[in-house]
């Protein structure tokens, strides 16, 4: 007569099965998390690269014409004031700077145009509310085809990237001295180089763990380049 399994043997077999299934589940969960994180990083990198491509193109075509900054006493100028303004701001422990300037790069807005003309462009972070009523920081780009004395308003704006933690802009003069805060009307021209750092919002990670993406742009040298 064949002897069946004892209760102890069944309990041991169930315990071993549970251990094996737990190991398989843990391995599967880690694999899924890695795949999900990989897709998030890919999307994150693509989003930041898009921002950098547009910003780099605008900065490399930054427009400055020294003679347009002033006229003879009593003489009116038909040209708008041409300058670059970068202001610093810090909120929630992260830099959320703003940079506005004139560029002759082709339009990259919702209605792109290859027409060469001087445009105002403005990059800054604002808060946007999602469908659940939660606020998220987004990076917007404003473009105005009719430059005027007010470089910070007018035109049309749209979101370039969502779910960002920080946006930092550092301008450097001809001597290489970095500064967060630049006004061409004060410095007398464009910065020689602009460094930009973007911090993404990464799910499951603390703010301090998010590493920034970095962009360096050399602004074309002109007689209006700041010293």
State the total count of DSSP E strands.
Answer: 12
Number of domains: 1
Question: CA-to-CA gap between the ends?
Answer: 100 Å
Please outline the major beta sheet: 6 strands, antiparallel
Helical content, roughly? 25-40%
Q: What structural class results from the helix and strand content?
A: alpha+beta
Please give the count of helices: 2
Query: Which percent band covers the strand fraction?
Result: 25-35%
- Low-pLDDT stretches are 68-80
Overall, the morphology is elongated
Characterization of the model:
The chain is α+β, with helices and mostly antiparallel strands. The chain has one domain (40-70, 77-218). The chain has two helices and twelve strands; from the N terminus they run αββββββββββαββ. It has helices spanning 7-60, 184-187, and strands spanning 84-87, 90-91, 94-95, 98-103, 119-129, 135-144, 156-161, 164-172, 178-179, 182-183, 193-200, 213-218. A six-stranded antiparallel β-sheet has the order 7-6-5-4-1-10. It has a four-stranded antiparallel β-sheet with strand order 9-8-11-12, with helices on one face.
């Amino acid at each position: 007569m064949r002897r069946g399994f004892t209760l102890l043997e069944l309990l041991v077999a169930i315990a071993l099965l549970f251990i094996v299934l737990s190991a398989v589940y843990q391995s599967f969960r880690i694999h899924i998390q890695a795949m999900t994180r990989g897709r998030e990083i890919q999307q994150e990198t693509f989003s930041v690269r898009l921002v950098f491509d547009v910003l780099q193109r605008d900065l490399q075509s930054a427009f400055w014409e020294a003679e347009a900054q002033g006229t003879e006493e009593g003489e009116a100028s038909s040209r708008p004031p041409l300058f670059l303004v970068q202001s610093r701001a810090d909120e929630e422990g992260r830099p959320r700077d703003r940079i506005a300037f004139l560029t002759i790069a082709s339009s990259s807005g919702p209605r792109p145009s290859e027409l060469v003309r001087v445009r105002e462009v403005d990059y800054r972070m604002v808060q946007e509310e999602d469908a659940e009523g939660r606020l998220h920081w987004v990076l917007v780009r404003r473009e105005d085809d009719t430059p005027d004395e007010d470089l910070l308003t007018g035109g049309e704006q749209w979101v370039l990237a969502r779910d960002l933690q920080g946006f930092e802009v550092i301008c450097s003069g001809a001597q290489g001295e970095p500064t967060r805060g630049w006004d061409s009307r004060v410095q007398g021209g464009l910065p020689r180089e602009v460094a930009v750092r973007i911090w993404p919002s990464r799910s499951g990670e603390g703010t301090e763990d998010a590493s920034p993406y970095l962009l360096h742009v050399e602004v074309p040298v002109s007689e209006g380049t700041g010293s």
